[in-house]
Design brief:
Layout: H1 3-16, H2 23-34, H3 40-58, H4 60-68, H5 70-75, H6 77-82, H7 88-122, H8 128-152, H9 164-179, H10 185-195, H11 200-229, H12 233-263, H13 267-286
Protein backbone atom coordinates (compact mmCIF):
# COMPACT_ATOMS: atom_id res chain seq x y z
CA UNK A 1 0.00 0.00 0.00
CA UNK A 2 1.27 3.47 -0.90
CA UNK A 3 1.50 6.22 1.70
CA UNK A 4 -1.06 8.40 -0.11
CA UNK A 5 -3.51 5.50 -0.10
CA UNK A 6 -3.07 5.11 3.65
CA UNK A 7 -3.84 8.82 4.09
CA UNK A 8 -6.97 8.59 1.94
CA UNK A 9 -8.18 5.59 3.92
CA UNK A 10 -7.48 7.56 7.10
CA UNK A 11 -9.76 10.31 5.81
CA UNK A 12 -12.41 7.73 4.91
CA UNK A 13 -12.18 6.18 8.38
CA UNK A 14 -12.32 9.55 10.14
CA UNK A 15 -15.51 10.43 8.29
CA UNK A 16 -17.33 7.12 8.27
CA UNK A 17 -16.58 5.92 11.81
CA UNK A 18 -18.95 8.53 13.21
CA UNK A 19 -21.35 9.12 10.34
CA UNK A 20 -23.98 6.34 10.20
CA UNK A 21 -22.65 4.93 6.91
CA UNK A 22 -20.28 2.08 8.00
CA UNK A 23 -16.54 2.62 8.37
CA UNK A 24 -15.61 -1.07 8.13
CA UNK A 25 -17.70 -1.37 4.97
CA UNK A 26 -15.97 1.60 3.33
CA UNK A 27 -12.50 0.33 4.28
CA UNK A 28 -13.32 -2.93 2.48
CA UNK A 29 -15.02 -1.23 -0.46
CA UNK A 30 -12.36 1.37 -1.37
CA UNK A 31 -9.49 -1.10 -2.05
CA UNK A 32 -11.96 -3.34 -3.91
CA UNK A 33 -13.21 -0.49 -6.13
CA UNK A 34 -9.80 0.93 -7.00
CA UNK A 35 -7.73 -2.23 -6.98
CA UNK A 36 -5.52 -1.15 -4.07
CA UNK A 37 -3.54 -3.56 -1.98
CA UNK A 38 -5.50 -4.48 1.13
CA UNK A 39 -3.85 -3.02 4.21
CA UNK A 40 -5.12 -5.90 6.34
CA UNK A 41 -6.79 -6.02 9.72
CA UNK A 42 -3.80 -4.53 11.51
CA UNK A 43 -3.88 -1.42 9.30
CA UNK A 44 -7.65 -1.13 9.86
CA UNK A 45 -6.94 -1.36 13.60
CA UNK A 46 -4.54 1.58 13.39
CA UNK A 47 -7.27 3.62 11.69
CA UNK A 48 -9.79 2.66 14.38
CA UNK A 49 -7.31 3.60 17.09
CA UNK A 50 -6.95 6.98 15.39
CA UNK A 51 -10.67 7.63 15.59
CA UNK A 52 -10.60 6.35 19.17
CA UNK A 53 -8.10 9.10 19.96
CA UNK A 54 -10.55 11.58 18.42
CA UNK A 55 -13.31 10.39 20.78
CA UNK A 56 -10.99 10.46 23.81
CA UNK A 57 -9.91 14.02 23.06
CA UNK A 58 -13.37 15.33 22.16
CA UNK A 59 -15.09 13.77 25.19
CA UNK A 60 -12.11 14.03 27.55
CA UNK A 61 -14.04 15.90 30.25
CA UNK A 62 -16.95 13.45 30.20
CA UNK A 63 -14.61 10.47 30.28
CA UNK A 64 -12.60 11.94 33.15
CA UNK A 65 -15.76 12.54 35.18
CA UNK A 66 -16.76 8.90 34.70
CA UNK A 67 -13.30 7.64 35.65
CA UNK A 68 -13.29 9.62 38.89
CA UNK A 69 -16.57 8.03 40.07
CA UNK A 70 -15.71 4.39 39.26
CA UNK A 71 -15.38 3.37 42.96
CA UNK A 72 -18.71 5.06 43.72
CA UNK A 73 -20.42 3.41 40.72
CA UNK A 74 -19.17 -0.02 41.76
CA UNK A 75 -20.29 0.48 45.36
CA UNK A 76 -24.02 0.58 44.53
CA UNK A 77 -24.72 0.06 40.81
CA UNK A 78 -28.34 -0.99 41.34
CA UNK A 79 -29.52 2.14 43.17
CA UNK A 80 -27.55 4.34 40.77
CA UNK A 81 -29.17 2.79 37.70
CA UNK A 82 -32.60 3.10 39.33
CA UNK A 83 -31.94 6.71 40.37
CA UNK A 84 -32.31 5.91 44.08
CA UNK A 85 -28.91 6.80 45.53
CA UNK A 86 -29.66 10.48 46.18
CA UNK A 87 -26.42 12.06 44.90
CA UNK A 88 -27.38 13.84 41.69
CA UNK A 89 -23.97 15.06 40.51
CA UNK A 90 -22.01 11.85 41.06
CA UNK A 91 -24.99 9.77 40.00
CA UNK A 92 -25.07 11.43 36.61
CA UNK A 93 -21.56 10.32 35.71
CA UNK A 94 -21.70 7.01 37.53
CA UNK A 95 -24.92 6.09 35.75
CA UNK A 96 -23.48 7.03 32.36
CA UNK A 97 -20.43 4.87 33.01
CA UNK A 98 -22.57 1.90 34.05
CA UNK A 99 -24.80 2.29 31.00
CA UNK A 100 -21.75 2.27 28.73
CA UNK A 101 -20.48 -0.93 30.37
CA UNK A 102 -23.89 -2.56 29.84
CA UNK A 103 -23.99 -1.43 26.19
CA UNK A 104 -20.57 -2.99 25.56
CA UNK A 105 -21.43 -6.47 26.86
CA UNK A 106 -23.36 -7.76 23.79
CA UNK A 107 -20.69 -6.52 21.39
CA UNK A 108 -17.87 -8.02 23.44
CA UNK A 109 -19.59 -11.42 23.53
CA UNK A 110 -20.39 -11.44 19.82
CA UNK A 111 -16.92 -10.21 18.91
CA UNK A 112 -15.24 -12.93 20.97
CA UNK A 113 -17.40 -15.65 19.40
CA UNK A 114 -17.48 -14.62 15.75
CA UNK A 115 -14.70 -12.11 15.03
CA UNK A 116 -12.33 -14.60 13.36
CA UNK A 117 -15.07 -15.97 11.08
CA UNK A 118 -16.20 -12.47 10.10
CA UNK A 119 -12.63 -11.35 9.39
CA UNK A 120 -12.01 -14.41 7.23
CA UNK A 121 -15.14 -13.82 5.16
CA UNK A 122 -14.75 -10.07 4.66
CA UNK A 123 -10.96 -9.99 4.13
CA UNK A 124 -10.40 -12.94 1.81
CA UNK A 125 -10.08 -12.53 -1.97
CA UNK A 126 -12.09 -15.69 -2.65
CA UNK A 127 -15.16 -14.24 -0.93
CA UNK A 128 -14.68 -10.60 -1.99
CA UNK A 129 -17.73 -10.35 -4.25
CA UNK A 130 -20.02 -12.03 -1.73
CA UNK A 131 -18.67 -9.75 0.99
CA UNK A 132 -19.36 -6.65 -1.12
CA UNK A 133 -22.87 -7.90 -1.85
CA UNK A 134 -23.45 -8.38 1.89
CA UNK A 135 -22.16 -4.86 2.64
CA UNK A 136 -24.40 -3.38 -0.08
CA UNK A 137 -27.43 -5.22 1.30
CA UNK A 138 -26.73 -4.06 4.86
CA UNK A 139 -26.23 -0.47 3.72
CA UNK A 140 -29.71 -0.47 2.23
CA UNK A 141 -31.36 -2.51 4.99
CA UNK A 142 -30.13 -0.33 7.84
CA UNK A 143 -31.10 2.77 5.85
CA UNK A 144 -34.68 1.52 5.87
CA UNK A 145 -34.54 0.70 9.59
CA UNK A 146 -33.04 4.13 10.35
CA UNK A 147 -35.82 5.76 8.32
CA UNK A 148 -38.33 3.80 10.41
CA UNK A 149 -36.64 4.94 13.63
CA UNK A 150 -36.87 8.54 12.44
CA UNK A 151 -40.58 8.08 11.85
CA UNK A 152 -41.56 6.39 15.12
CA UNK A 153 -38.93 7.67 17.58
CA UNK A 154 -40.24 10.21 20.09
CA UNK A 155 -36.87 12.03 20.34
CA UNK A 156 -37.61 13.45 23.79
CA UNK A 157 -35.21 11.50 26.02
CA UNK A 158 -31.75 12.61 27.10
CA UNK A 159 -28.92 10.36 28.27
CA UNK A 160 -29.75 11.24 31.88
CA UNK A 161 -33.15 9.62 31.39
CA UNK A 162 -31.79 6.36 29.96
CA UNK A 163 -32.19 3.05 31.80
CA UNK A 164 -30.46 -0.30 31.55
CA UNK A 165 -32.95 -1.55 28.93
CA UNK A 166 -32.02 1.37 26.67
CA UNK A 167 -28.36 0.46 27.09
CA UNK A 168 -29.01 -3.19 26.24
CA UNK A 169 -30.88 -2.25 23.06
CA UNK A 170 -28.03 0.04 21.98
CA UNK A 171 -25.59 -2.74 22.87
CA UNK A 172 -27.46 -5.19 20.65
CA UNK A 173 -27.13 -2.72 17.78
CA UNK A 174 -23.41 -2.50 18.49
CA UNK A 175 -23.16 -6.29 18.49
CA UNK A 176 -24.94 -6.51 15.13
CA UNK A 177 -22.49 -4.06 13.59
CA UNK A 178 -19.55 -6.09 14.94
CA UNK A 179 -20.44 -9.08 12.74
CA UNK A 180 -21.95 -7.35 9.70
CA UNK A 181 -19.78 -4.69 7.99
CA UNK A 182 -22.08 -2.34 6.14
CA UNK A 183 -24.40 -2.13 9.13
CA UNK A 184 -22.33 0.68 10.73
CA UNK A 185 -21.64 0.69 14.46
CA UNK A 186 -22.67 4.33 14.79
CA UNK A 187 -25.61 3.77 12.45
CA UNK A 188 -26.92 0.78 14.39
CA UNK A 189 -26.46 2.41 17.80
CA UNK A 190 -27.94 5.75 16.76
CA UNK A 191 -30.88 3.89 15.24
CA UNK A 192 -31.35 1.92 18.46
CA UNK A 193 -31.17 5.13 20.46
CA UNK A 194 -33.85 6.75 18.30
CA UNK A 195 -36.13 3.73 18.76
CA UNK A 196 -35.68 4.13 22.53
CA UNK A 197 -36.78 7.78 22.35
CA UNK A 198 -33.42 9.57 22.52
CA UNK A 199 -32.94 12.87 20.75
CA UNK A 200 -30.67 12.68 17.70
CA UNK A 201 -27.66 14.45 19.32
CA UNK A 202 -28.00 12.39 22.51
CA UNK A 203 -28.26 9.14 20.54
CA UNK A 204 -25.07 10.07 18.67
CA UNK A 205 -23.25 11.13 21.83
CA UNK A 206 -24.05 7.88 23.62
CA UNK A 207 -23.11 5.95 20.49
CA UNK A 208 -19.65 7.52 20.41
CA UNK A 209 -19.02 6.97 24.12
CA UNK A 210 -20.31 3.39 24.06
CA UNK A 211 -17.84 2.52 21.33
CA UNK A 212 -14.75 3.51 23.32
CA UNK A 213 -14.16 0.24 25.26
CA UNK A 214 -14.81 -2.07 22.29
CA UNK A 215 -12.73 -0.06 19.81
CA UNK A 216 -9.90 0.19 22.33
CA UNK A 217 -9.88 -3.53 23.05
CA UNK A 218 -10.16 -4.69 19.43
CA UNK A 219 -7.68 -2.12 18.18
CA UNK A 220 -5.00 -2.94 20.74
CA UNK A 221 -5.33 -6.68 20.13
CA UNK A 222 -5.00 -6.30 16.36
CA UNK A 223 -2.11 -3.89 16.70
CA UNK A 224 -0.32 -6.23 19.10
CA UNK A 225 -0.71 -9.04 16.57
CA UNK A 226 0.78 -6.85 13.84
CA UNK A 227 3.75 -5.85 15.98
CA UNK A 228 4.42 -9.45 17.01
CA UNK A 229 4.31 -10.52 13.35
CA UNK A 230 6.80 -7.79 12.50
CA UNK A 231 6.46 -4.74 10.26
CA UNK A 232 8.92 -2.86 8.06
CA UNK A 233 9.43 0.90 8.04
CA UNK A 234 7.02 1.46 5.13
CA UNK A 235 4.25 -0.43 6.92
CA UNK A 236 4.91 1.47 10.14
CA UNK A 237 4.73 4.78 8.24
CA UNK A 238 1.40 3.77 6.69
CA UNK A 239 0.06 2.87 10.13
CA UNK A 240 1.16 6.21 11.55
CA UNK A 241 -0.07 8.32 8.62
CA UNK A 242 -3.45 6.57 8.49
CA UNK A 243 -3.94 6.73 12.24
CA UNK A 244 -3.05 10.41 12.56
CA UNK A 245 -5.24 11.34 9.60
CA UNK A 246 -8.23 9.40 10.93
CA UNK A 247 -7.79 11.05 14.35
CA UNK A 248 -7.79 14.60 12.92
CA UNK A 249 -10.68 14.01 10.52
CA UNK A 250 -12.59 12.05 13.16
CA UNK A 251 -12.34 14.88 15.70
CA UNK A 252 -13.75 17.35 13.17
CA UNK A 253 -16.49 14.91 12.16
CA UNK A 254 -17.70 14.36 15.74
CA UNK A 255 -18.27 18.05 16.33
CA UNK A 256 -19.80 18.57 12.92
CA UNK A 257 -22.23 15.68 13.24
CA UNK A 258 -23.42 16.64 16.74
CA UNK A 259 -24.12 20.20 15.52
CA UNK A 260 -25.80 18.89 12.36
CA UNK A 261 -28.13 16.58 14.32
CA UNK A 262 -29.28 19.46 16.51
CA UNK A 263 -30.96 20.97 13.44
CA UNK A 264 -31.41 18.17 10.90
CA UNK A 265 -32.57 14.57 10.65
CA UNK A 266 -30.49 11.61 9.45
CA UNK A 267 -32.26 11.58 6.07
CA UNK A 268 -29.13 12.59 4.14
CA UNK A 269 -27.35 9.50 5.47
CA UNK A 270 -30.34 7.30 4.70
CA UNK A 271 -30.33 8.48 1.07
CA UNK A 272 -26.55 8.06 0.84
CA UNK A 273 -26.70 4.48 2.14
CA UNK A 274 -29.36 3.48 -0.37
CA UNK A 275 -27.60 5.11 -3.33
CA UNK A 276 -24.20 3.68 -2.37
CA UNK A 277 -25.68 0.23 -1.80
CA UNK A 278 -27.34 0.25 -5.23
CA UNK A 279 -24.09 1.50 -6.78
CA UNK A 280 -22.21 -1.45 -5.28
CA UNK A 281 -24.76 -3.91 -6.66
CA UNK A 282 -24.35 -2.25 -10.08
CA UNK A 283 -20.57 -2.57 -9.87
CA UNK A 284 -20.88 -6.25 -8.98
CA UNK A 285 -23.19 -6.78 -11.95
CA UNK A 286 -20.82 -4.98 -14.36
CA UNK A 287 -17.86 -7.00 -13.11
Amino acid sequence: MELWQAIILGIVQGLTEFLPVSSSGHLIIFPWLFGWENGGLAFDASLHLGTLVAVLVYFRRDLWQMITVIPYALSKPGPILRGESGDDDRDRWAKLGLLIVIACIPGAIVGALFESRVDEFFHTDETANRAIAMIAAMLILLALVLWWAEKVGKRTKHIRGMNWVDAVVVGLGQALAAVLPGTSRSGATITAGLFRGLTRPEAARFSFLAGVPLILGAGLLSLADAISAGMDSAMAMNFLAGGVTSAIVGFITIGGLLKFLQRQSTMVFIVYRVIFGLFLFLMLFLR
